[in-house]
Amino acid sequence: MKFFNFSFGILFILVLFSCSKNENEYRQIKGESGTSFSDSKDAWIELKAINGESYRYTTSFISWSGYGSRTVLSVKDGLISKREYLYFQQTFNEEGEMIEVEIESYTETGDQIGRNAEGFEPLLIDQLYETCISEYLKVSREQHEVFFNTDQAGLISDCGFFEKGCVDDCFTGFKISEFNWL
After folding, report:
1. What is the pLDDT of residue 82?
2. Is 182:173 a contact under the CB 8 Å cutoff?
3. Residue 37 pLDDT > 60, yes or no?
4. Arithmetic mean of pLDDT, 12-18
5. Which is it for strands 144-150 and 98-109: parallel, antiparallel or unpaired?
6. In the chain, what percentage of residues exceed pLDDT 90?
7. Averaged over 116-121, what is the pLDDT?
């Protein structure tokens, strides 16, 4: 029985250290900006404390076919206060300029936030950091191209992956196209 308890203890310690090593490895991933996930999250915590928990961010998606969507999430005092969604098609106007033609849109506030299935999930930036490290950065590098990047302030701007060899609309994750403190 003592041998079993000792063996179990050793196995538990090995699993614990191997998990923390992998977690630390993901936290050191750097994007094109040169900022690591860990440094970006530290910057977020610091800037959030300085600026308060009121901000707005926009996620965007554009398909190769010209269809796209944009979701704007507004956060006030650490709670999502508004979600705005636009689904559109890009096309050229008579002057030859690229324009967006609205197909569908909505605005949610209060208890309505999250009622519509379309649009980016109503998540706080803190939740995006958690999703990034727990879901997107841990995929197999042999089978996927993995992306993590930050904006000029060091805050997360995109995180996700696509399967190697995929050519059309394969990205799983998020891209923050705009961020503002309120």
Report:
1. 98
2. no
3. yes
4. 40
5. unpaired
6. 74
7. 96
Confidence of residue 5 (pLDDT cuts 50, 70, 90): very low
- C-alpha 118/C-alpha 115 separation (Å) is 9
What 3-state class would DSSP assign to 133? helix
Q: What are the residues whose beta carbons fall under 8 Å from the beta carbon of 148, sequence distance 6 or more?
A: 29, 30, 31, 37, 132, 136, 137, 156, 158, 159
- Looking up tokens 């050191």, which residue turns up? 28
Residue written as tokens 């995180």?
A: 159
Nearest Cα residue to 43 out of 127, 124, 129, 109: 129
pLDDT surpassing 90 at residue 23: no
**What does 42-66 look like in DSSP terms, one character per residue?**
HHHHHHHHHH-S-EEEEEEEE-TTS
The domain spans of the chain are 32-181
Between CA 7 and CA 10 the distance in angstroms is 5
Place of tokens 């998020």: 174
Assign 22 a pLDDT band (cuts: 50, 70, 90). Answer: low
Burial class (CB in 10 A: 0-12, 13-18, 19+), 75: buried
| CB neighbour list of residue 93: distance below 8 Å, 6 or more residues apart | 99
Per DSSP, the three-state class of 31 is: coil
Query: Which of 134, 104, 136, 99 has the alpha carbon at shortest distance from 119?
Result: 104
